[in-house]
Records
---
Amino acid sequence: MKRIAAALGLLLLAGSGASAQSDESSAKEKVTPLFASDERLNITLTGPIKTIVNRAERSMDPHPARLQAAGESHAISLSARGKSRRKGENCKFPPLRIEFSAKPAETSLFHKQGGIKLVTHCSTREKYDQYVLREYAMYRLYSVVTPESLKVRLAQVTYLDDGDVVAARPGFLIEDADDAARRLGVKEVDIGNIGSNLLNREAAARFAMFQYMIGNTDWAMVVGPDPTDCCHNSKLLGESKSARRDLTPVPYDFDNSGMVDAPYAYPNAALGTNSVRTRVYRGFCSLNSLVPGEIERLRRLRPQFEAEIRAIPGLEQRTREDMLRYLDGYYKSVADERSVKRNIYDKCR
């Protein structure tokens, strides 16, 4: 995919310091206000929370509710979303979708937001807060790798139902793929299953190696559960909505990865592993020539990954240490040519 200089803030392409500053400002203007800051946001959601939670497994019907944050109050509809996390056997509190009843004003923090995905705490047990923060960290790590990623905003969310505090727990909001595309100067491509030859090779290799690094096998960048709707835990971006070449896959939903290690996560039976902590490379063999470059890229970024993990607010020390150890396991798995052959080239598809 051709990169749009202004959208990505590639200052080296600017002709002078003034034009470079202008390009950077232009790129920042394309980020919606909600995702322009990394500051943790305090949110209060008021509505039939108990009803939404109790019916989550069988219903994703929207319910009138209210969102309060940053001194603002908005009428919204609130609904359960997702698949595995809506099942009571996995989670006692489902992920949610927020839809604004009216377009927020230009001065609002939520300007240009129509609907937002909210990742929630899954269970009332406090240890589940750490899994929310772990998954939040995965989005942050991928944004270190590339701007062709979904931005996230950490939040402390209070849930009110008829005056009662149902819960007050961490969560995070996820940038919509359309907003990410606008920020990057491209378009989200809605398409059915595709061939791997339609993907941008560099982006696909980058995607696959990152997923291997975090131990995630719950994805597909060319097929989806519904053949008419590509892909699984991945969005496609292209030069236009009708683009059918040079497509960039953008990942989301990392809770089944080894670095998150959620209690409800399960290994991919088709891969013959017994734990989500077991790394399995699922990149395409046609991309093998790009593997050395991607390994080197992730090696150079290691200090930034480690700094990002250490900076996540609310992470307990033992959680942080576990994530850093798991990250170290990746680097050991690609430490030399023999390891790369065994773990990458011999496992490609």
---
Amino acid sequence: MKVLLVGSGGREHALAWKLAREGAEVVAAPGNPGLAALGRCVPARADDLDALVALAEVERPDYTLVGPEAPLALGIVDRFRARGLPVFGPTAAAARIETSKAWAKRLMLGAGVPTARASTHTDPADAKRAAHALGAPVVVKASGLAAGKGVVVAETLAAAAAAIDDMLVGNRYGAAGAEVLVEEFMEGEELSLFFVTDGETAVPLPAAQDHKRLLAGDHGPNTGGMGAYAPAARADVAAEVDQRIVGPTLAAMRAAGTPFTGLLYAGLMLTRDGPRVVEFNCRFGDPETQAVLPLMDALGSPLGPMIAGSLGLAAPRVVRTADDPPAAVTTVLAAAGYPDAPRTGDPITLPADLPDGVTIFHAGTARDASGQLVTAGGRVLAVTAVAETFARAQALSRETAARVEFAGKQYRDDIGWREAARHEATRPA
């Protein structure tokens, strides 16, 4: 198949890598230097819907796959469907499950989907009263899109008040933070589960765990994600999530007249009472995709037929699993100054050779006037290793990340630390 891939980050590089390995012809808009080694890159911005419609009408791909959330929020799927162009993703109305946390929370509560108690506010005083009623720790979230950074887990009520003022008074996230959620803090371990859906049925991909904090041990500020590993849960967890969470959510969206098609990303907390929703996203996650797709590849599980099947182009296939699957670990390399003020333009030197099972995905990279690879964003590269054991995958990812060179490089050397602790605890004495 011929696929038009919209986006320029590490997630899009991983999607192109997987689809190309399945024999697809990939055209990327706008792409990045890593994507350029897999297919053609066309200089059309991901948020320029006119240019993307025109490109699709010229290229006539079998379908367009949208990576980032911004074009989905702008209505790229609506525009493509109006022109009869096959596209994988939700409409702008359905994308509100990510673009408005307040709308998503109301949908979940109305559908009986297990999630945290929360209230929405535009007035700082009201929001602070809600935080006091819940007690610390408490979570403060910008309702709109904030590039994965609009969430504060406040350990004290003073910290919650500061976060509320930062968003509602200081305008830190602009329109995205003009409305905030004050939410119950949930105890447990986070999990990311992706489901490919045609709006009626949903097929789960392997579960992953993201690492949001900048520093080892889950310290420091929240980021867009400093790494991930997969698989991160038993197969029965996906079945429970499908039954208790995804199924009711899809039914509620159909009932609301906004059926969801594409990739539904359930961000979950595994609590003592079972899985509860932290948030939904309307697209593949980053950096989880960079771990999930190489793992699927190692299992011999195709992605393209599932996407095509959800569009009615072919029969979808269930993801293959194994009793003792391999593991994938992804370490993100971030630029100096990330997440607040990432520096760009630093020359990058990649290892001359990579171990078997290791892939480096480009995210924030570019070529300068001389052709030198340089940093061009906050999260620069993602180093993914797939191996027969988790410990080996973790070591390969960490060791290869250390060999990449650019000034001010930041990365965590403990991606998958919870899984490593579980393995250590069950090792025979």
